[in-house]
Amino acid sequence: MIKITLPDGTIKEHQSGSTPMDVAKGISEGFARNVISAKFNNSIVESTTPLSEDGSLVLYTWRDPEGKKAFWHSSAHILAQALEELYPNVKLWVGPAIDNGFYYDVDLGEESISDKDFKAIETKMLEIARGKHDFKMREVSKAEALSYYMDKNDYKVALIENLEDGEITFCDHSTFTDLCRGGHIPNTGIVKAVKILNVAGAYYKGDENNKMLTRVYGISFPKQKELTEYLELLEEAKKRDHRKLGRELELFTFSQKVGQGLPLWLPKGAALRERLEQFLKKAQKKAGYEMVISPHIGQKELYVTSGHYAKYGEDSFQPIRTPKEDEEFLLKPMNCPHHCEIFKHRPFSYRELPKRYAEFGTVYRYEQSGELHGLTRVRGFTQDDAHIFCTTDQLDQEFKDVIDLSLYVLGSLGFENFTAQVSVRDMDSPEKYIGSVENWEKAEQAIINAATEKGLDFVIESGEAAFYGPKLDFMVRDALGRKWQLGTIQVDYNLPERFDLTYKGSDNEMHRPVMIHRAPFGSMERFIALLLEHTGGNFPLWLIPEQAIILSVSEKHEKYAEKVLNSLENNEIRALIDNRNETVGKKIREAEMNKIPFMLIVGENEEANETISVRRHGGEDLGSIRLDDFKDLVNTEINSTLKSF
To answer: Is 617 among the catalytic positions?
Structure first.
């Protein structure tokens, strides 16, 4: 007999050789029907894997992220089989599960796939799924694996050549076999609905010097109803696409002559950005931050010292050579090395700490052109960066204070649905990180302690840390249920060592400060993109560029419209006048399209009574009200969302 420990601490005894599915059936037959994947002793296993030792077992259903991962990974196998049957000369490379669905990278030779082929692929996938074929894992020797693929798929051969005997497995279902590490649903029949979403080019191994493969994206569900709901969500996402809304609302644009991935902010967008900056600057000032400014470039040696050149060198713009021999500068990939040098400008005593330096600093990364995407993936972006230099005794309180600031920012902008993620190093890949194990352990524990004390709902994710330190990331769900990383706080013992930062302690000895990296927005570009999609362009009233538009019924009422405008502006309500020779109906329609919150209609009656007729964006008619009452309405609405920090 073996002892199986379940997540709630319950221990079940089963015969050696029992499978996770047997354990599930022991809990209840109804529960077992929903189990599609499992983890045993922290390793993903099949629901049919025999268990031969004591251990902890987690059983996953479709509702669990790991269950979805197994479901979509298995669906990628079904897609691969469908492609092999429809395109006999296809060569498969890799097909992982992703956040929403799966893809498979394939070499189609002389053939191609377009949207007109999607239906045939979906039909073939469902035909395979209905066969209810079991997914079966088997170990093979390296020689066997190479022999199987040698004459028909050089991509798989290249994968196998980097593997060792004893770690190679195949997965079989129906007549199909694929090189695979595992993690599948019990059988193909669980997949009831599929949709091919799109195709794209993808360089082999992500290297633009290699051959371009075809990446086929798909998604699948255990019920047709869920696919229908997902497709409706996709349609809504298209309407909310920040690139579309940014163009329609005249917030930003791009120019090929300026360069790919380098956004140009139009007047309305620049005003919105400035308002966001002032909002954070005001809160930062209350929290004791000091604003600094650093240049857009720095000597290459600066980033060699920080470690950024070794980590980001390939993704950075190439060095700028000056007339002076052997002198090279880089467009800065990060602000933190500059802030380290600012801290070094003079000696500090422990009595002067913490020092909190903040900057809206623009940084540059040479992202591959195929990875650029509107404002969410650009080559030049502005971080709301701050770096706190403090003593080890101050670290806990400083970190918790930054959590409070981050929660204030998210709450003021309507991001209420979030979880916190403690991102720690990958213990199996120490080469990814700089600094001592001791410093990493101290930094990771400091974050976990602070998150616990603040009562945050957090998860720990291995391998997601920055190269110089662990971090706390805020993972936000938007109005469409999508998950984004917004805001980050990092503890860093390493850069103070690399830059030899010190302060004089109460013992008159020199000590090393701890450094906190912090960016509640993350990057202004990405944050505004996500805010656009989250709100659909209906920004919070305190932030929106134009809070009201005054619509004059005819030219006879233009003077009264000007009087209303002046009164609003004197009360810091942002408004404009539409006195074009157009019907009020047309003016209202255009104001609706521009997502202006309030439409103020002024005509003969309004002028005579010194009132305005107010219509909300979306069609709600508030009737005729006094101007002072409208001002109170706007201020009350702003104060309800924008609380003081």
So the answer is: no
